[in-house]
């Protein structure tokens, strides 16, 4: 059973499942090939979780998993895979890994991905995020200005690369 639907203790509190990040209105549900694979894996795990909960007679958990499964199926139905163009463009687009350097001189790399694949702690940012929007269209050597809580930050694009589609 996936960790999202388990309890770490025996308390009577229901399992907490964080909601799926919403797509901004009017935006397509772009996904990378990797992101689509992850969504399909998550769906398979949810279906297994539902079967296990149903077999144990845990109807409340089975209902929660069924709701999550339904949400994921709807998201998958609208998924639009954005393949890596060939030849790969030199500017930042969806699916790019971008290395940037700010005023501190520290280089950071971000991958521009779909909303469901985004994980800022792993350097994967959604294409609708302010940082991604500032970087899209830039090339190595160009600067992007990003508004942050500390004020505007200028980032130099150091490199742009695309992973080959499997």
Explain what the structure shows.
This protein starts with 28 loop residues before the first strand and ends with a strand. A 5-stranded mixed β-sheet has the order 5-4-3-7-6. A two-stranded parallel ribbon has the order 1-2. It has 2 domains: 27-81, no CATH class; 96-162, Chitinase A, domain 3, CATH 3.10.50.30. Helix 1 runs antiparallel to helix 2 (59-77). It is 30% helix and 24% strand. A hairpin with a 5-residue loop joins strand 3 and strand 4. The longest helix is centred in the N-terminal third of the chain and has 24 residues, at 33-56. It is elongated. The chain is built from 3 helices and 7 strands; from the N terminus they run βααββββαββ.
Structure characteristics:
single chain; 166 residues; alpha/beta; Chitinase A, domain 3; two-stranded parallel sheet
Helix count, DSSP H or I runs of 4 or more residues: 3
End-to-end distance: 29 Å
Averaging pLDDT over every residue, what do you get? 87
Helicity level, as a percent range? 25-40%
CATH topology of the largest domain: Chitinase A, domain 3
Low-confidence stretches: 6-15
- Per CATH, the architecture of the largest domain is Roll
CATH superfamily of the largest domain: Transcription elongation factor, GreA/GreB, C-terminal domain
Structural class, judged by helices and strands? alpha/beta
The first-level CATH class name of the largest domain:
Alpha Beta
Q: Roughly how many Å is the radius of gyration?
A: 19 Å
Query: What is the quaternary state of this protein?
Result: single chain
Q: Order of helices and strands, N to C?
A: EHHEEEEHEE
- Estimated share of beta-strand residues: 15-25%
The biggest sheet amounts to: 5 strands, mixed
The number of domains? 2
Q: Could you tell me the number of beta strands? A: 7
Shape: elongated
The strand line-up of the biggest sheet is: 5-4-3-7-6
């Amino acid at each position: 059973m996936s960790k999202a639907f388990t309890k770490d203790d025996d308390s009577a509190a229901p399992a907490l499942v964080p909601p799926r990040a919403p797509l901004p209105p009017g935006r397509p549900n772009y996904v990378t090939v990797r992101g689509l694979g992850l969504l399909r894996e998550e769906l398979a795990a949810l279906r297994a979780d539902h079967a296990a909960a149903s077999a144990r007679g845990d109807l409340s958990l089975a209902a929660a998993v069924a709701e999550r499964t339904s949400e994921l199926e709807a998201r998958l139905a609208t998924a639009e895979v954005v393949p890596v163009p060939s030849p790969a463009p030199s500017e930042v687009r969806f699916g790019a890994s971008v290395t940037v350097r700010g005023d501190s001189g520290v280089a950071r790399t971000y991958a521009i991905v779909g909303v469901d694949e985004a994980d800022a702690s792993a350097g994967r940012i959604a294409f609708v995020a302010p940082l991604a929007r500032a970087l899209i269209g830039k090339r190595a050597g160009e600067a992007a200005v990003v508004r942050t809580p500390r004020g505007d930050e200028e980032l130099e694009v150091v490199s742009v690369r695309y992973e080959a589609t499997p």
